[in-house]
Every structure is written in C-alpha cells, then in structure tokens.
Amino acid sequence: MYRLSSLLPLTLFVVLAISATAATGAPTRPNIVFVITDDQGYGDLGFTGNPVVKTPHIDRLAAESSQLKDYHVAPTCSPTRAALLTGHWTDRTGVWHTVNGRSMLRENEITLGQLLKSHGYATGMFGKWHLGDNYPYRAEDRGFTEVYRHGGGGVGQTPDLWDNAYFDGRYFHNGRIVTAKGFCTDVFFAEAHRFIREQAVAKKPFLAYIALNAPHSPFHAPKKYTDLYPQQTPELASFFGMITNIDDNVGATRALLSELGLADNTLFIFTTDNGTATGEKIFNAGMRGKKGSEYEGGHRVPLLAHWPAAGWTKPHVSDTLSHAVDIVPTLLDVTGAPTPTGLKFDGRSIRPLLDPASKTPTWPHERMLVTDSQRVRDPIKWKQTAVMSGPWRLINNTELYDIQADPGQQMNVIDYQPARAAKMRAFYDGWWAELEPTFAQTTEIHLGHPDHPSVSLTGHDWIQEALPPWHQGHIRVADGFATARPATTKAKATKAAAQSPHAGHWAVKVVTSGRYEVSVRRWPVEADHPITADLPPGANVSGSDIAFRARSGAAIPAATATLRINGRDLATSPVRPTDTNVAFTTTLTAGSHQLAPVFTTADGNEVGAYYAVVTKIP
Questions:
Q1: Which residue from 55, 382, 578, 596 puts its CA 20 to 30 A from 526's CA?
Q2: What is the pairing mode between strands 206-211 and 122-127?
Q3: pLDDT over 80 at 16, yes or no
Q4: Which of 252, 251, 255, 225 is nearest to 238 (CA)?
C-alpha cells in the first residue's frame, strides 16, 4: 500500500513516536529550518554561476553545506510542495496543477508537519502554502501548529485577502486575519524568527517551514533592492532584487540561530520549487527549458543542507539523481521520527548522499523517477513528461537525452538507444497504470464541518477545462465574462444564455445534511462592494509590475443571481443596485455535490459568482 486510506488518529501517531523512542533511546532531534523559494531556478544564484545576481549569504551557505546537483522537483509550484511534504508523487496526491481545484492536497495524505508534530516537534509554516485554502486542506489542518500565510499561490491571488500587494499586507495567522507592515518576504521571515525564538525558550525541537512567494511574479521589491541592478531591465531588476532580499533574510536567519545557540543542531535546508520563470534571460546553467518545462531547466533545482552537529559543514557535492519525494523519508531518518504502519513512500532517504562521511557505492544509480507538467484539469499520459534514470532523460516518449554528454538536451539519441528507451518506457507505463485510477478522486471542499462552519469559495478553485480567474487582476477585469450581443426578444436572450453558460463548478463535500446559506458575490466580503458596481483602482507598489489592486474593477450588469447545484437551477433572485451579495437558503444532503452559482445579465449572458460563502444554519 502506498498511502494510508485515511488519516490516522493523532493519538496513534503519538503512540508510534513514543514506542520508537523507547525502543531506540532518545534520538537526537535536530531543529529544521526549511527555506523554499518560488520560481527561482538553479541558475538564479551566485554559487551556481549567475554573473549578475547578488546572493552572498546563500553562496556562503553553499560553501558550508552538502549540495545536491541532480535534484529534481515538479515544474510548477503546488505539485512540488505536495511531493516534498508527503513523499508521494504529485499525481498520486491529487496535486498536479496550481489552480482548477487541482492544487488541494488530498485529505488522506499525511504531511511532514503531522509526522514531526507527532514526534514532539513544534511545527511552523510561514508564507506560501498553495495546497488548499479551506478545510481540510489548510496548513493548520495538516499538522502545522503555527501558521502565518497568504492565500492561494501568491500575494494578491484570488484566495488571498482582497487588495493585498507585496507591502503592508494582511495575512492569515492561525485562522485569524492580521495586519502586517513591510515587504512580504521580510514579514514571513520575521514571523519565522518569532517562532524560532519561542521554541528556543521552550527548549523544544522545531520545524520552521519557510515557503516564500518570491521571486514569483508580479515583480515587486523594495526599491533599495531593485536599485542594486541598474543595468538590468525593470523586470529583471525586480526579480533579482527579490532574490537578494531573500538572501539577506537567509543570512539573518542563520545569524539568529547562532545568537540563540541553536546553529549546531539545526539542519538548515535551502531549495527552490521549480525552474526559473524569468532569470533564464541572463543565465540558466546551460539547461534547456524553464518553469513549466519537461526539460531539465524546468525541474532541476539546487538543494543545500547544512547541519554542523552531523558534520555537514563542507562543500560536499552529490551528483546522484534525487527528487522531492525523497525529502520526507530523509527528514524522518534524520529526526528519528517513525513511519506509521501502512504508509509507504515513493521516495527514499537520501541522507547518505548528503552525509560527507557516508559511502554510497551501492546507491541505486539506475533508479527511475518521473516528473511531469500536468497543467490541465485531468492528467494526460506523457504530457510534458520526463522519465529520469542516472544521466538519461526520456522526454514525452519521443526523445532520449544523455545529459552527461549533452547537458543542453540538444541531441535526441532515442534511435540509437532503443533498449534503454524501452526500459524507461516500461517503467513509466507501470507507473501510470498504478496512478491513473486515482485521478478520479476529486479533492472536495468540506461544508458543514465543525472545524470550519463558514467556508469561503473563490474562482481560483473552479473545476473547468479553461484556466479560472486565479488572481485578483482577473477578478477586477471580470475574467470569463463577455457581454453577449443585444437580445431584442426573449427567444434571443435564451439563445444567448445557452451560448455562454458558466462552465465551472466547485467540488464540495457536505459533511452534515441540513440547511445552508449560500451567499454569492461578485466582489469578496472584504471589499463590501455592490455586485453591479465598478471599482476604482487602488495604490500601486514598488516594482516593475502594476499591482493587481492598481487596476480598475469592471462592472458586471448582473440582473439575476441563480443557485445552481449538480447542474440544476434551484433558485433565482434579482440583483438590486445596492446588493453586495445575494443569499440563498437550501437543504443539502451529505455527500458530494457540484456547486456553481451564476450571475446572469438581462441579455442572457452568464458568469460564475467569483466568490461564495457557505454557512451551515444551526
């Protein structure tokens, strides 16, 4: 069995942890600081050869750390996080996309946070979660006891708090909305530092998972950082400025660990979540492809591990193939945390690759790994897929490269290596056959659960073939709404509506049968703005891009709102000029449903309600 059929009770985890300790003696439990950046590629660092970016603190960390040179992730954000927090293939976890309801980590997956919490660790998560914004998918539902995060996949995305930009934002802190001052990366590190200080006082081992939204677009950075790159385009100056800001925070975090006397027994990991999104214009370490690509530049990223107590303090480099699915098994190995009975990982501990004192002649160099870029509603076999074994890369079932001889993947040798290609193809066929039956297990947002009685839904998670409105810029311009030609008769209006139905829905699971209020909105609760009104632009922030909030908000001339569930229109109400929402009351039975409320204009054009709040009525 590859994963538990349901979440094991926390008490069972605790018993397992206590039993392991009793059997082996109290293990050395290092603190873990895990920093992962967003859209920063292998070549976007000084120590990997970038001639422009300034990263002195991370360069110093590299000189004092074990380093993986052939470490791979998914080509995009959410899938990488799913793999490194569970030890399972992204496609197994239900997270193969970043939107469309395919970025929520299936509820039966067990995370590193849960495993280490059960081993006596304090567990903190700071910044970008991007594995679900509602119960049971939030970080606070998955073993992290201290959570300080933005919504969705980035500051200003649709599930994030309205009008958030990269400066002076509002964030979710343990389920409450709080206000912060300063640049988002600085805020997330500051909150992690607070958490680390608290654990130092409590003398408790900790996991500080610092997952940043930078340097993902939009490109905003404090001016003092963009000013470091006067010779670059505004976009690159902001991109590199965001990276140097991260670098300063990495240096400050290491200094804090030393100040608190924690540096010796803290495992400090630095890595990134996919290939570069922007920096390839300057340097891509000779690789082909970038973020989203099945070629090496899309998924080969750096990983540094520094742990003085274990002797991981020298520039020890491993060029053996490894993957994000190896992270959880490795950290359980390092901390002595037990693996629950019945839980099998797709990865394995790569501690021998990181330990300078280890001998690894028997390491399975012929091991095969898979990464793919499935930015679609449902996975497609061989879509942007790389099967990896040693130096070999089988791409899309039609190309084979030896990256040792051809690191830029320019010479397809599949016709000269038919046996090798066949072996890798056979592995992938078996891999796909095992996973394919799980693709139909849609992740559903829970309604009526006592831990989350009022649920906020956003267009980010519409399940549909097309991309949904995943950031607030899309919301402001009314993405997905196109005014139909004037309809002069009722028949024409009906025809127009038939030609422009809302194609998406939210997949929900009603936990408890009963009466529910479904409040549908054009603008989110925080905006408190009429459905049919436009919205003036807000203030811009420093950087090369225009902030999402600095765009005008388009009006939608909605005449009615309709509650649509499971393809049936249950109720329709008029939209008055002053209405900020239209509330429906309905009875929902326990089980799976498709919720798709819509607004309709007088000429019959439909658009999905970008926001809805569903509350169980006592």
A1: 596
A2: parallel
A3: no
A4: 225
